[in-house]
Amino acid sequence: MNRVVGAVGLVAAAGLAWGLAEAQSFVVRQVSAPVLAPGSRPVRILHVSDLHLTPGQRRKVEWVRSLASFKPDLVINTGDNLAHLDAVPTALDALEPLLDFPGVFVHGSNDYYAPRPKNPFTYFASPTKVRGDEAEHDVDALTAGMADRGWLNLNNSRGTLTVMGTEISFVGLDDPHLERDALPTPGGARGDLRIGVVHAPYLRALGALHGDGAEVLIAGHTHGGQVCVPFMGALVTNCDLDTSRASGLHGWPGPRPDAAGGEDSAWLHVSAGVGTSPYAPVRFACRPEATVLTLLPRDG
Fold first, then answer.
1. What is the pLDDT of residues 48-86, one digit of tens each?
2. Strand ranges (DSSP E) for 13-65?
3. Is 126 helix (H, G, I), strand (E, B) or coil?
4. Does residue 272 contact residue 289 with C-beta atoms inside 8 Å?
5. What's the predicted TM-score (pTM) here?
6. Interval 140-161: pLDDT, tens
7. Closest CA to 197 of 224, 161, 170
8. What's the DSSP call for residue 243?
9. Which of 93, 133, 168, 230 is the most buried (most CB within 10 A)?
10. Hey, what domains does the chain have and what are their CATH numbers?
11. What is the largest CA-CA distance in the chain?
């Protein structure tokens, strides 16, 4: 019996050590989607999400800053940049080189409220809840730090950018996880392409953006499941999105648009994100990531 207990303890310790190490094993994913009009120039998007920064996380900060070396045509930030009451300067320091490029952003729940200790196993039972008594982040300072450098604030808002000759119209939602989402009033030019941006990919939010005409949907929040089962994938998404689309590039609501029968679908990209809660700083079979999503012209 003692041997069994000892073996279980060793396995648990090894799993914890692996999860702590994997949470620092940052990676850049590269995917592409044929969504632009034929003859268009490709548009390279850097999608960053769920940084969950705290002061002193210099390694993560420097890695995020290094993403500027990809020279994206557009940066999309889908929120949850903060994980500490004093982290706004840290987040803006991490994003500073990326703010030189055209960009758009929405907020997540952790941009509004500081995380608090909780039983990590409740994450596997149901989506996490914000009680309302959490300390509030200085979200106005975070917003100003990005907007003052020219990034479009898409929280329940619209905007337009011309990127590599393609006029992109954006529609964004504030965080559905906090039930702050409200589709903005229709208006403005349709553009050559419409992109919908939201932090948490709840089905109602994706449906609203797709119903508004978005051909590409960009989200974060899920952490890719954070703790996954090898060869099986995510166990949860922390929302009502199915686990098969917890991260990566997929079709929504049906097959990929380039697949048979997928003509009415949009492209959905969900980032597994870069960080974790400071109270559960592990990942397993789910490396922290940013993504370079290249939009390509369609055939013909």
1. 999 999 999 999 999 999 999 999 999 999 999 999 999
2. 27-36, 43-48
3. coil
4. yes
5. 0.92
6. 999 999 999 999 999 999 999 9
7. 170
8. G
9. 168
10. 2-297 (3.60.21)
11. 70
